[in-house]
Design brief:
By secondary structure, the protein is an alpha+beta fold. 47% of the residues lie in helices and 13% in strands. It has 21 helices and 11 strands. It has helices at residues 65-78, 101-106, 108-122, 154-160, 172-178, 187-198, 203-210, 214-224, 238-245, 247-263, 276-295, 300-309, 313-323, 325-333, 339-347, 351-362, 366-374, 385-401, 416-421, 426-433, 438-442, and strands at 5-7, 12-17, 22-27, 31-37, 42-48, 87-92, 126-132, 138-143, 148-153, 458-461, 464-467. The strands form 2 sheets. It has a 6-stranded mixed beta sheet. Strands 2-5-4-6-7 form a 5-stranded mixed beta sheet, with helices on one face. A hairpin with a 4-residue loop joins strand 8 (138-143) and strand 9 (148-153). Helix 1 crosses helix 3 (108-122). The longest helix is centred in the middle third of the chain and has 20 residues, at 276-295.
Length: 468
Amino acid sequence: MLYPNIIVRSGSSFISGQQYKTLKANLGSCIGIAMFDKTNKVGGILHTLLPEPYSNFVDIEEKYASTGLPKFIDELIKAGADINCLEACVAGGAFPGEPNNFDYYINLGGKTAEKVSKILNFYKITILQWETGGFFSSYLTLNLSNFEASITPVIEDGITMVQDCNFKKPEKTEIEEKADSIKPIPQIVLKIISMINSSSASLKEIGKEIKKDQVISAKALQLSNSAAFDRIYPIDTIDEAILRIGEENILKYILNHYIKEMFSSSERGYSLCKGGLFHHSLSTALINEKLCAFTGVESPQTGYTAGLLHDLGKILLDQYVSDSRPLFYRELVKQTKNITDVEQELFGMDHSEAGLIIAKKWKLPQVIHDVIKFHHNPEKAEKNKIIIILTHISDILSSWYMTGVLPESSKIDITLDILEKVSLTPQKILEFTHKLPLKEFSALFPLQLNEVSGKKECVKVDGGVLCH
């Protein structure tokens, strides 16, 4: 029997008594711990990311195994569990691609799993199932009606959800023609993006351009008067709205509004949940923005734009992934192939090539062309190499920490050579991961998030998302 899913997001936990619902965590390099007391009928899931804090500062206790797991056990006992009756199932800690020197050095999943093991042994909690490592993401679920836990590979779930089909390889001209049906980003939006990225335009000049578009103007005023900003007095002019919101937020809001609209149709293609393409693009944009600021070698605004648009080609190929879904997923499981290999084999082009078709039709800036073309192969780029490398790293980090929205690129890796080109080291990447904005990531999952099981309505609940 299928029960409504409560999604336990990264850096959070959910504890409950017996009810007809299922807890679910989507795990990549993160570690999920399902813990339950069947006698006293209480249990929960902790979804933790890192072994321990990088410094004395702890922003979210659940983010770290060293602080989150003891707290989780304590909360279970407060909820009625007996420490002597608690049992656990542990999953996650996967390598995001074929392991290389960087993966073995940083090994976040392995280190977090080791910390979890030590804590569970200290509390003498029985471990019923332990499945960590491997190359692909997994789902950890806990049925709250009977407190049975299970671990399922994400990619396997994607295959078994749909029956096999006969798929005919599309002609390249057919794919190119479909690009004409995608509603482009308005040129005025691209102009505003260019003005903000150039840093040469004044707020007054930016405001003048925003006023030319009724939709953007209305949205800017609506945002400036929303609860997200200080509403001591109402804003009724565009110039005041920009001052209150800030240039960076204006840029994000304008881009997000149009990009989300483009990605909204995807339900059974690349996405493992409704809106998966948009969630991945948005999380990559957030990480890239933070990484640009962290390194100081590129504009955060450029990083955000590049992250948001790097996978444009997936919009064009999404329908073909949907048509070939079982075959696409089976090919992706093979460790000898990555996602671009599978796309080339099945569709005659990969999403980078498809993205360039859109970028040229929309007359996007050359830097975005280069990011789209080389974000999986940054070593081949001749121009704009720095932002391409940073977007490449952010894309991979996004797949680590926003697991379960898209199938991973199983052989796309962060290498030591790539890191050196932007003056980064595994140690600095490790430091950066501790600064990732989990609260912003959590906000990426809107109320209408659908699970692959086809649930149609979702509402936010304390500690997760309830889909029913």
